[in-house]
Amino acid sequence: MLGVLGGMGPLASAEFMRRLTLLTPAARDQDHIPAILWSDPRVPDRTAARIAGGEDPLPALLRGIRGLEAAGSGAIAIPCNTAHGWFDAMQAATPLPILHIVDAAATELARLGVASGPIGVMGTAGTLAMRLYQDRLEHRGYACLVPTDAEMDSLVTPAIALVKANHVTAAYAPLAEAASRLVARGAQAVVLGCTEIPLGIAAGPALPFPVCDTLDALARAAIGWAQR
Questions:
Q1: Between 20 and 30 A from 95 (CA), which of 31, 77, 89, 163?
Q2: pLDDT (tens digit, 9 = 90+) per residue, 2-13?
Q3: Contact (CB, 8 A) for 212 and 190
Q4: 190: helix, coil or strand?
Q5: Who's near 216: CB < 8 A, 6+ residues apart?
């Protein structure tokens, strides 16, 4: 049983379950992966906790992990990038393996044929401030380009908020603009390092450069775990 610690946000978690289903090689119901989604949108804002002194989300995250343990999960996937700022504390609190979304993204980049060099990383202000992608991917040989503070304030952060408010289509233009600017600065591909961002990007025309969709990446990692 795959446990999915979700609700951050709810739409991204629901989309992760859809991607998990669509990417699984299956011919019948019984070929799919048993999974349970713990979708709790009451988890305190992760970015606010890291950069604005907001409420610590860890107790709520651990509550979800306990629920997934009780449901019989064998591993946990978390379709929220910023929540991985508490990865070490969560992993220390459970014997279950937690699939790390940044490691999944690195595998996805390799699958896309982007093995090194400069890449763009889009995410919440919290994810970028914690260097969740920069440190982990630079260790693998990537150089990470991120949006400027002005681009975060005018494009990325408002677009993420639009997806969370269910205005998905309106998020496309600012997200596409932010990604295109990273490519113009030399990025060979752009990591969509917030699970709301792929939803906004999917609402418009495909971008003319490689993108690493972290919802797909985490779903592929979960499928790999299940098929061991």
A1: 31
A2: 999 999 999 999
A3: yes
A4: strand
A5: 19, 23, 108, 198
pTM of the entire predicted model = 0.97
Q: Is the dihedral of CA 17, 23, 28, 31 positive or negative?
A: negative
CB 176 within 8 A of CB 207: yes
Distance CA 27, CA 31 (A): 6
Question: Where is 119: in which H helix or E strand?
Answer: strand 117-122
CB atoms within 10 A of CB 35: 18
Q: Is the peptide bond before 3 cis (omega within 30 degrees of 0)?
A: no
Burial class, 162, CB count within 10 angstroms (exposed 0-12 / middle 13-18 / buried 19+): buried
CB count, 10 Å around CB of 81? 32
Asked whether the beta carbons of 29 and 100 are under 8 A apart, the reply is: no
Where would I find the H helices in 24-131?
46-51, 58-70, 87-92, 101-111, 125-129
Tokens of 26: 């299956």
Each residue's pLDDT tens digit, 44-90? 999 999 999 999 999 999 999 999 999 999 999 999 999 999 999 99
